[in-house]
Amino acid sequence: MTENGVGPDLVTHNIILSAYKNGAQYSKALSYFGLMKGTGIRPDTTTLNIVIHCLVKLEKIEEAVKIFISMRDKRTESPPDVVTFTTIIHMYSSCGQIENCKAVFDTMLAEGLKPSLISYNVLLGAYASRGMSEEALSVFNEIKQKGFRPDVVSYTSLLCAYGRSRQPDKARDVYYSMKNNRLKPNLVCYNALIDAYGANGMLTEAVETLREMERDGIQPNVVSICTLLAASGRCGRKVDIDTILSASKSRGIELNTAAYNAAIGSFLYVGEYDKAVSLYKSMGTKRAKPDSVTFNVLISGCCKFGKYDEAIELFSAMIDLAVPISKEVYSSVISAYGQQGQLEILESVFADMKMAGCTPDVVTYTSILNAYIGAEKWEKAMALFDEMETINIQLDSIACSAIMRAFNKGGNPTNVLALAKQMRERKISFTDTVIYEMVSACSM
């Protein structure tokens, strides 16, 4: 076009931007938009909608909001349309800012724009993601009141809302209502129903849904398997975990990292430590690679079963693989070193945790407190408590009982009663251990 003297116009630029967007090449789309601005051709609403979409996909939220605000300027030549508002609602939904979703939807109505079915579905999905079933049902009913026919996405979102709000019976009713309205459930819908059953410990119903899915000609995927594995663990069904893994293999479903994590977590939940470790080791021969969740589940499991050496070995493997270390992993490893009385290494890991920008929480501090108490380092325990107070760590009953024990053993029983007063003011419950330390303090 350029060589023949036919300069690309706005339509041409929008087509190219759209191609990049549809091809999920979001960074290239934004780069092209930068070049487009240099040509002097002014973007229109379609252009900016594509740019906002790409920014949202790249999680550049502030930039997306900035463009949205500029489009709402009364002097703009590119005012937002229904697509713009819908994209912004979806963005806030992805960020978990549900109140903003409703605010943007209401603004769209206030500006005289008529939401599309997609707009309603995005708002419905936002509520469903948080298990807000009453709000989701209200939007679903509004869809019908506005003359739209709810589609599979509408029904699936409502089903998901009931599943996540622990109402599996209502989720099932939505599923049958969808079929009665001559809509064919898709893979996402079946997975949502499996999850609704699985999250509520209804493993038999979840497995039957998987079979019904296959009878309807829809092949389960790795998400279906993940959901069933998690459900098996929650139900404490050792045999079913192996059965589900075998069923996955026979159907040619290759496990991804999330599926391995679900299976490992389920094995640990039912006490099958060796099987969990074996499955972890098999990941090295597969495409799925262990991630921070894998190590978090395994290291926590090792500590639960008193296998502290193994927990430390896994921590070393995690460092060698350059896997990001989470707060939970740091806390578990600190607990492991504490149980072995290796205070210097524990303190070193604690320092590394802070240096890495991973903020310790009450669980981390409680692990260190218990280590100091076990080693009879009363002064260090009390100094750690002062640090917790300085940075406003929210105490719980377990931490308070550990601190009280340190005070008593360190010869400061008056501080125990002072802490008990703080607990009462902060409405922290008094456990048997807390009361025992209080009685001990009084006797001193």
SSE order? HHHHHHHHHHHHHHHHHHHHHHHHH
Q: Termini, distance in Å? A: 92 Å
What's the pLDDT, averaged over the residues?
89
Unreliable segments of 5+ consecutive residues: none
Classify the beta-strand content into a percent band: under 5%
Structural class: mainly alpha
Number of strands: 0
Shape estimate? globular
Largest sheet: none
Question: Radius of gyration over alpha carbons?
Answer: 28 Å
Helix count, DSSP H or I runs of 4 or more residues: 25
Approximately how much helix is present in the residues? over 70%
Keywords: Repeat
PPR repeats: 9-43, 44-78, 81-115, 116-150, 151-185, 186-220, 256-290, 291-325, 326-360, 361-395
Organism: Kalanchoe fedtschenkoi (Lavender scallops)
InterPro entries: PPR_P_subfamily (IPR050872), PPR_rpt (IPR002885), TPR-like_helical_dom_sf (IPR011990)
Descriptive report:
With 444 residues, the chain is an all-alpha fold. Among the domains are: 185-249 and 258-282; 289-360; 377-443. The chain has helices at 10-22, 26-37, 45-57, 61-71, 82-94, 98-110, 117-129, 133-145, 152-164, 168-180, 187-198, 203-215, 222-235, 238-250, 257-269, 273-282, 292-304, 308-320, 327-339, 343-355, 362-374, 378-390, 397-409, 413-426, 432-443. The relative contact order is 0.03.
